[in-house]
């Protein structure tokens, strides 16, 4: 069979842990990208009381070929959701809270105020927790980006997802230059904030294209980079063109660091929020050491 899933990408699932966290989330009427995007690390993260909250519903206005989140016309935003996210984060005992969303091109503010309000509510409920946001591109609007940054998350993350050539096919409705510029503007507006991005491999890119993408990401002043293997979530999504062996991930991490990216989490099972708390701690230590 073509591109059979390698053994190193298969994980055992502790269903009891999975059900317990899911029960708490359903009680709060909340979604996680861990569930909606069928993340392969869901059991591991849920068992360690970690989750990435998906705000503004579970229907996206874009149709990225790699993503299993439902596409279509979203429901109106429930602005009481931010308080429920904060309450659920407290109940789960989270010390690092990650917030992401579907893309909401239907909204005048693209969802920027919902991100900001959720950060505010989490600060009230969990004043000692760190907060990471993984946002859509806000269509490149600097004013909308500033709304989120003004709420002072500890980490601003926006994923570029794939290489330049594959963007039109894999990420229709998005543009690599828009994403790179958003990261660059975030660095300019908030020079001391941790800036993060990530991408997947296995969608048909070659080594030269990956190196070009690493160079582009290094030029925006990135602090943290995640690189993971794309795994097809359903037959409706783009097929896997290649499973890259582990040595390539190690090589890309070394290359990214030589280009100036401070901290790289690279491996087949890596996803954007995988070990996000540890990545923040490590890069904070590196930046503090650089100042001395």
Protein architecture, described:
With about 290 residues, the protein is α/β, with parallel strands linked by helices. It has a single domain (about 10-290), classed as TIM Barrel (Alpha-Beta Barrel), CATH 3.20.20.70. Helices cover about 40% and strands about 15% of the residues. The protein is built from eleven helices and ten strands. The radius of gyration is 18 Å and the shape is globular.
Outline the fold blueprint.
Layout: H1 15-27, E1 31-32, H2 33-36, H3 42-47, E2 52-55, E3 59-60, E4 70-71, H4 81-91, E5 96-101, H5 112-125, E6 130-134, H6 142-150, E7 155-157, H7 167-170, H8 176-189, E8 194-201, H9 207-218, E9 224-229, H10 246-258, E10 263-266, H11 276-291
Parallel strand pairs: 2-5, 3-4, 5-6, 6-7, 7-8, 8-9, 9-10
Antiparallel strand pairs: 1-2
Helix pairs in contact: 4-5, 5-6, 6-8
């Amino acid at each position: 069979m073509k591109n059979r899933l390698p053994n190193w990408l298969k994980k055992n699932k502790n269903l009891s842990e999975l059900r317990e966290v899911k029960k708490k989330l359903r009680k709060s009427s909340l979604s996680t990208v861990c569930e909606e995007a069928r993340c392969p690390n869901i059991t591991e993260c849920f068992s360690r009381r970690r989750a990435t909250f998906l705000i503004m519903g579970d229907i996206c206005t874009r149709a990225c070929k790699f993503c299993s989140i439902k596409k279509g016309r979203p429901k109106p935003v429930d602005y009481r959701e931010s308080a429920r996210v904060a309450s659920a984060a407290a109940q789960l005992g989270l010390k690092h809270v990650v917030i992401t969303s579907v893309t909401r091109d239907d909204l005048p503010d693209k969802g920027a105020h919902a991100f900001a309000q959720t950060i505010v509510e989490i600060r009230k409920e969990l004043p000692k927790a760190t907060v990471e946001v993984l946002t859509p591109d806000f269509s490149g609007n600097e004013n909308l980006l500033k709304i989120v940054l003004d709420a002072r998350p500890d980490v601003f993350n926006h994923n570029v997802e794939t290489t330049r050539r594959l963007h039109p096919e894999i990420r229709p409705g998005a543009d690599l230059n828009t994403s790179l510029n958003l990261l660059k503007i975030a660095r300019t507006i908030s020079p001391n904030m941790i800036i993060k991005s990530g991408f997947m491999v296995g969608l048909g890119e070659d080594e030269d294209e990956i190196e070009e993408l690493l160079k582009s990401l290094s030029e925006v002043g990135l602090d943290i980079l995640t690189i993971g293997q794309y795994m097809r979530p359903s037959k409706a999504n783009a097929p896997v063109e290649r499973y890259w062996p582990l040595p390539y991930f190690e090589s890309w991490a070394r290359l990214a660091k030589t280009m100036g990216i401070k901290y790289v989490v690279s491996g087949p099972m890596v996803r954007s929020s995988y070990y996000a708390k540890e990545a923040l701690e490590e890069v904070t230590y590196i930046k503090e050491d650089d100042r001395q």
